[in-house]
Amino acid sequence: xxxxxxxxxxxxxxxxxxxxxxxxxxxxxxFGVDVLRTFPLTFNRGFVFEPxxxxxxxxxxxxxxxxxxxxxxxxxxxxxxxxxNTGRYxxxxxxxxxxxxxxxxNEFNLQACLIYSDFTEKGTxxxxxxxxxxxxxxxxQRNKLFIVELQPNYWLPISDRISVNFQVRxxxxxxxxxxxxxxxxxVPGVGNVQAWGNRDGIPNSRRVTEGISIRLVYxxxxx
Length: 223
Prior knowledge:
Porin; 1 helix
């Protein structure tokens, strides 16, 4: 089974399991903010802001809606290229709490997501030296991509209302990206998509990515 088939099989498993659920005490609404994405791990400066709204049903199904914005810079992506990425993304996820703990919110969750990412990359290329006269050339490319995501995650309670959500994100980029000027480096909502290995000295972009994230979650309503 290839990676694409495995990803879709896992998503189907999550959606089917949602329909065979046991009933629990209450419905809850949460507000969440991702706190790991904004750290400059794959870029030099800028920001990534991802707020989310989560709804937990009585049968412990989670509906997760997130909207993200980013404006990042990397001073030297390649030897003579300064990189900028500006965009937004939307993520809709449906998940199921697999293990019910005796403590509130202390549970494992398996979630399937669909992501739409719309972003523009800009590469500023500087040709240094007497032959070029420090020539500067700017290349821009825009992409609108659909991504499917499988997300195992764990909720750790800090208080009755606040939890920390640890996430493992496995993504598959469904849409073919436009790489007419340079390989796609960063996909909003997914992260760094540079693969190991290279094509003529330049890293390839990959379709399957893995990453981790941490989200702070606040329960503001219980029904």
